[in-house]
Amino acid sequence: MTEIPPDHPRYLSLKERHGIIDGMHQKIVAEAGLIAHGRGEAFDYLLGEKTPDYALEQEKAAVAHLLLAKNSVISINGNVAILCPDSLVQLAEETGAKLEVNLFYRTVEREQNIKQILLDAGAKEILGVELGETAATIPEITHNRRIVDPEGIFKADVVFVPLEDGDRTMALRKMGKIVLCVDLNPLSRTSVWSNVTIVNHVRRAAQEMVDIAKELKNLSREKLSEILDNYDNNSMLKDSVKYMAERLLTLSQEKLQEG
Ligand code: PTJ
Q1: Pick the residue with more confidence: 13 or 2?
Q2: Which residues sit with their C-beta closer than 6 Å to ligand 1?
Q3: Is 110 a member of any domain?
């Protein structure tokens, strides 16, 4: 593993980048996962690599959905298995959600490696691995993400898809499910199609959601529903875009004056 000096100004970001690269060599992250991560980094630069206030509101709404669900599932891919396995396992525990491995670039080796990471992080049950003939499929999708666990995503009412590509979100919505996502790109198809989109880095979002779940889990169903009463994903996405646009302008004024 490449050593990053802890005093490097972008220590955390570089450490994470190398974690993703190592994850690819260990057959956890897909090769395309590196490209996806780079795209995420560019958007996170616009957030100043910090959680904005609007994201906390999005995270609260997502947690409320998870707590209100009859049957919720957190979908795990290669990138999130490297970036935040502990937080996602804790979030499942705090909200009663199941964990399911669901991969775009599906191989049995990657499924097993990701399952092991989740077990090491304390998970007890992991769905979606080596499904073979027991697999269910999501209608309308032709790629590998269509393969789902009949006991997991297939029958869930709420599905949390941290870091996703667009078509499955659309297909899950068409199946009548509530979809929650984390995506640093507020204009991606996943972002636009989800019921609740969290525009934040998945590592920060997952950790913050664990803390929020600890706070909210003792609320009544009425109080949890109130959080969602006036929630409008489209308007929250507009807030996210506005935040990024304003930060880009401020940043460019600062940086360009420096030179
Ligand atoms: O592990 P697999 O086989 O399931 O494959 C996973 C990847 C990520 C390769 C696959 O889902 C994919 O190709 O995703 P996309 O279409 O590149 O979309 C990824 C989205 O996540 C993009 O909109 C990125 O901006 C966003 N993103 C990337 N890194 C982060 C992120 N959002 C939040 N936090 C991040 N760290």
Answers
A1: 13
A2: 30, 32-33, 36-37, 39-40, 43, 77-79, 83, 103-105, 163-165, 182-185, 188, 201-202
A3: yes
Domain CATH for 130: 3.40.50.12640
In a domain, 118, yes or no: yes
Range of the domain at 133: 53-237
- Mean pLDDT score, 42-51: 95
- Res 11: pLDDT: 85
Condensed to tens digits (0 to 9), the pLDDT of residues 221-242 reads 999 999 999 899 999 999 999 9
| Closest C-alpha to 69, from 108, 42, 98 | 98
Atom of ligand 1 at shortest distance to CA of 29? 1
In this structure, is residue 28 part of a structural domain?
no
Q: Residue 10, Cβ neighbours under 10 Å: how many?
A: 13
Q: With bands split at pLDDT 50, 70 and 90, how would you rate the model's confidence at 183?
A: very high
* 184 found inside a domain: yes
pTM metric for this prediction: 0.96
Query: Per-residue pLDDT for 259 more than 60?
Result: no
